[in-house]
Predict the structure.
Amino acid sequence: MSKVVVVTSGKGGVGKTTTSASLGAALAQAGQNVVVVDFDVGLRNLDLVLGAERRVVFDLVNVVQGDAKLAQALIKDKRVDTLSLLAASQTRDKDALTEEGVKSVIDELRTKFDWIICDSPAGIEKGAMLAMRFADVAVVVTNPEVSSVRDSDRIIGMLDSKTVRAENGETFEKHLMLTRYNPARAAKGEMLGVDDVLEILAIPLLGIVPESPDVLNASNLGCPVTLHNPASTAAKAYADAAKRLLGETVEITTPALEKQGLLGRLFGRKAVA
Amino acid sequence: MPVNAAAPALPQLRIRGRSFMCLILAPEPPLEAWFTALDEQLRRAASYFVNKPIVINLAVAQEAGGKLDEIVSALEARGLYIIAVEGLSADELTGTRWAGLPDLRQKPQDREDVGGKLIEIPDDPLPAPSVPAVTSLLIDRPVRSGQSIIFEDGDVTIIGPVSSGAEVIAGGSIHIYGALRGRAIAGLRAGANARIFCHKFGAELVAIDGVYDTPESWSEAFNNRAAQVRLEGGVLNIAPLA
């Protein structure tokens, strides 16, 4: 039984693409057959984060419009052979996607993979709507900042009304992935605490990823953090989140205050989309 | 045919009752104006009458001395789907093109006496028991940012939070079993008597009967406390609930 997961947030730059790549890799490392699909047509990034930017020949738009077969567009990861990528097109825009086209691609992916992870673009327009449209589960990526929390709240409202499952009156699982959590700033009260975010959003927590230079380094190297540095706290957070998605009960640890190195202080706050 | 015990069992007859909706048109004098109004309606919403069964009530027209022939041909000319007439007896239609249409009027005298007494069925059926209008709305999930709940007919009860960027607009009072972080606008119909209640106060805006207020003008002491908002003498009054 395959599951379609949409990774979404409303706000940009909170870590949707990093989360899609890292969760996808973690699920694949756990032996699942995974495809990550980039819905950010025109501003694709997932290929970079997965280090496959030089291997994209056909993309989602080509498949949706019937110019290429799905098998031609799927790019198999060289490090984990159960992980595949369906890239977005950089030269087109969101209007190149149609609901029927996306549905047929998702239906075909369902026959081939256990997990279909849809990396949503930011915003609440067509691209984001199509990314969530056929999903079974949502991972809502949120930073502990008021603006991010409010945008996530808006997206949760849309997940509850605009998805096919919601329209059919079925339950729609939503999980919160709290990313770029900075224990030092949380301790000083400079950002929202985990409890504050959970109280506002009122959906179950899938994991907390600390703000970490490991994530940025991994993205820059084109390698998900779970593959690049499996021992890091960020990688562990994603691996645990993947286990929870698979139904295991793993206790959630709130990242504690740890001494940050110079690099962390310099680069810790840079956006990783 | 004599009933024989060995006769094959006959299928059980199922007789069911069903109600259908049909439109009733009652031409009234002056007929010319009435037909003009009908034509106007047909022009504005041509599809309204398409394939809708129509019953013609001729009581008023006949009483006013309208010529049945003329009415019949005028109605037919408009291509309406007429299934029956009511309001006059069938023999009055004899000679017109509608003579064969079923007459919906109750005619107890025509009924066969089934060995008992006749049950009088009044011409005007008893009015249907009136269903009380819905005066409250219950929402049992969070009202998320960007969503609005608008209910003009009465009170709104929300079980869950109302997020920042969400709004609830009610004709009566608003009851929130959760945190109010968005806008609550009460008293669209009830006016100054409406109130706003919430478990955790933190609104972006509250309004009753058109009088609104924003956090700048109220004390932070109410934040995150159970509170009610009322309108007293044209001024919004926020008070903690014990």
Summary: The domain at 136-240 of chain B is CATH 2.160.20.70 (Pectate Lyase C-like).
